[in-house]
Amino acid sequence: MTLDETLAQFADLLAERVAARLNGHAPPEPAPPERWLTAAQVAPLLGVSDRWCYDHAEQLGGKRLSRRCMRFSEVAVRRYLERRR
Fold first, then answer.
1. What is the rounded CA–CA span in Å between residue 60 and residue 78?
2. What is the pLDDT of residues 23-66, one digit of tens each?
3. Which are the contacts of 74, defined by CB distance < 8 A and separation ≥ 6?
4. Angstrom distance (rounded) from CA 23 to CA 42
5. Residue 64, CB-side half-sphere exposure with 13 Å CA sphere
């Protein structure tokens, strides 16, 4: 894609947004970035120990970032809580 084509595409997108605002239609708010929690942050939410979180990481949406580092998706942990109730 050339620079002129890129600029034309950008201009079209900008014009669409301006027109939407002028017509009273606000663009949708972007979703907030997903939070990744430590086992120490997840454990109190569930009323369990850090070790339990590590042992059940697969069920809780845990992702291993390195050999010694794991994080848990806040969305997945909340989903787990909803299923458990």
1. 9
2. 887 767 777 888 999 999 999 999 999 999 999 999 999 999 99
3. 34, 35, 36, 37
4. 44
5. 8
Euclidean distance between CA atoms 20 and 26, whole angstroms:
7
Across 64-72, average pLDDT:
94
**The residue to which tokens 């014009």 are assigned:** 15
Q: What is the rounded distance in angstroms from the CA atom of residue 57 to the CA atom of residue 60? A: 5
